[in-house]
């Protein structure tokens, strides 16, 4: 059997040293940044494809982070280098950043400066370098980690003071989501940026995406100390390609909006779960209605599962959430149709080897799955997943551990 690959995270000191060295290399002998900032990737415990339906999600921040060394400039020029694209500089003028007009990975960075300016903040150009141990394209929010690290960096160098409290962080989330939706062109829902900026160590974030809520109302903290009860959250990066800019994610989102419109509701959150059958009937007949029925059933039942998951954890019964994870996966696979062969394989093999529950996490179509595992069973579950991938001749997966970690700082 191939030995399992563990995707380790860096210490903050290591991450900072890497970007400081890269900054000096990229920007010459005066290569000293104003500072170093970082932000985590995330895994979502449950509540998938609910954020853009004004629903609930329950992410935790990963210990894997993206590091940014940044120096403010007097003009509007942005110059970027990444350890992932060495030797190449991405450059723009902030005056040229506009929806539809900015290409490449720098859109996620310059987009944040654009969005902060749109919100009335005075933000100038900057030189910055980036390095990251958040796996890319793995459904673990590497793009949100990049945006959020840049957001706290710009907040600090311009003295905006937003990162100082949760309400300010919610405003930074809005800027990062605008960057991703309007400048990078990915129509995502905001859970990832909220997780990266608003999670806390030892807790999951119960995110309520109904519009108009105060910062306090939109974010509950759910203690999630698995170590204390002998459990581990195992993350498996399937290495199956995953992209949110492609049409599938946008298509799911559009279906939900269409269903809400047919039902005459502001969002699918407004469907009473006890009257789900009535709503499903009201979607009408024919093949299009059948598809919408499945999408709606996923969203409404997933919001209910998320509520139940959070309540079960708050009641001190975290070992009992396995069935909710399994049901979430089945719903994403069969009703929402966003799973993939590799994700199903992780889920099935992890469960067969004793995981209490398992599910895909994030947008789907590839990316990562999570499994809740008793500490004593972790090695067996890892071996079983690895063996299943070997037997299917698939690219070896990557394994990560996910203790709930710190937000952007
Ligand atoms: C991606 C998006 C999020 C969310 C999830 C699915 O991660 O960025 O906004 O919609 O998919 O839950």
Characterization of the model:
The protein is α+β, with helices and mostly antiparallel strands and 409 residues long. The chain has two domains: 5-224, Ribosomal Protein S5, domain 2; 228-401, GHMP kinase, C-terminal domain (Alpha-Beta Plaits), CATH 3.30.70. The protein is built from twelve helices and 13 strands. The strands form three sheets. The chain has a five-stranded mixed β-sheet with strand order 1-13-10-12-11. Helix 11 (341-352) packs across helix 12. It is globular. It binds alpha-D-galactopyranose. Alpha-D-galactopyranose (GLA) binds next to helix 5.
Topology record:
Blueprint (H helix, E strand, L loop, with lengths): L4 E2 L5 H16 L7 E10 L11 E2 L1 E14 L4 E6 L2 E9 L12 H13 L7 E7 L9 H16 L8 H18 L7 H8 L4 E6 L6 H4 E5 L7 E7 L9 H17 L12 H7 L4 H28 L7 H13 L6 H12 L4 E5 L6 E7 L3 H14 L6 E4 L8
Parallel strand pairs: 1-13, 5-7
Antiparallel strand pairs: 2-4, 3-8, 4-7, 5-6, 8-9, 10-12, 10-13, 11-12
Helix pairs in contact: 2-3, 2-4, 3-4, 3-5, 4-5, 7-9, 9-10, 11-12
The structure holds alpha-D-galactopyranose.
Alpha-D-galactopyranose (GLA) binds next to helix 5.
Average pLDDT number: 96
> What are the low-pLDDT stretches, counting only 5+ consecutive residues below 50?
none
Order of strands in the sheet with most strands: 1-13-10-12-11
Give the amount of beta strand, in percent. 15-25%
- SSE-based structural type: alpha+beta
């Amino acid at each position: 059997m191939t030995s399992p690959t563990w995707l380790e995270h860096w210490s903050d000191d290591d991450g900072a040293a890497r970007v400081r060295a890269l900054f000096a290399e990229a920007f010459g002998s005066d290569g000293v940044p104003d500072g170093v900032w970082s932000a985590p990737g995330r895994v979502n415990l449950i509540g998938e494809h609910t954020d853009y339906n004004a629903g609930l999600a329950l992410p935790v921040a990963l210990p894997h982070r993206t590091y940014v060394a940044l120096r403010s400039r007097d003009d509007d020029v942005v110059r970027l280098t990444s350890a992932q694209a060495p030797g190449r500089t991405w450059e723009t003028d902030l005056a040229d950043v506009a929806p539809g007009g900015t290409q490449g990975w720098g859109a996620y960075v310059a987009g944040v400066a654009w969005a902060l300016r749109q919100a009335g903040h005075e933000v100038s150009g900057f030189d910055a370098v980036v390095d990251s141990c958040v796996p890319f394209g793995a459904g673990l929010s590497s793009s949100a980690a990049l945006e959020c690290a840049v957001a706290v960096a710009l907040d600090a160098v311009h003295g905006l003071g937003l990162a100082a409290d949760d309400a300010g962080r919610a405003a930074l989330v809005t800027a990062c989501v605008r960057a991703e939706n309007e400048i990078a062109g990915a129509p995502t829902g905001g859970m990832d940026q909220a997780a990266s900026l608003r999670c806390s160590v030892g807790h999951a974030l119960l995110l309520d995406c109904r519009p108009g809520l105060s910062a306090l109302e939109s974010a509950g903290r759910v203690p999630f100390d698995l170590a204390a009860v002998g459990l581990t959250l195992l993350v498996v990066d399937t290495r199956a390609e995953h992209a949110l800019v492609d049409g599938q994610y946008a298509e799911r989102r559009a279906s939900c909006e269409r269903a809400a419109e047919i039902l005459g509701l502001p969002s699918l959150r407004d469907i009473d779960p006890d009257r789900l059958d009535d709503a499903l009937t009201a979607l009408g007949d024919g093949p299009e209605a059948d598809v919408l029925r499945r999408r709606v059933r996923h969203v409404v039942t997933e919001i209910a599962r998320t509520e139940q998951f959070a309540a079960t954890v708050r009641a001190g019964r975290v070992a009992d959430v396995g069935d909710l994870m399994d049901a979430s996966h089945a719903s994403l696979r069969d009703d929402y149709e966003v799973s993939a062969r590799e994700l199903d394989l992780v889920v099935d093999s992890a469960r067969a080897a004793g995981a209490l529950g398992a599910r895909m996490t994030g947008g789907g179509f590839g990316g990562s799955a999570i499994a809740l595992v008793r500490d004593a069973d972790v090695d067996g579950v890892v071996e079983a997943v690895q063996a299943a991938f070997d037997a299917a001749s698939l690219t070896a997966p990557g394994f990560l551990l996910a203790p709930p970690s710190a937000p952007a700082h």
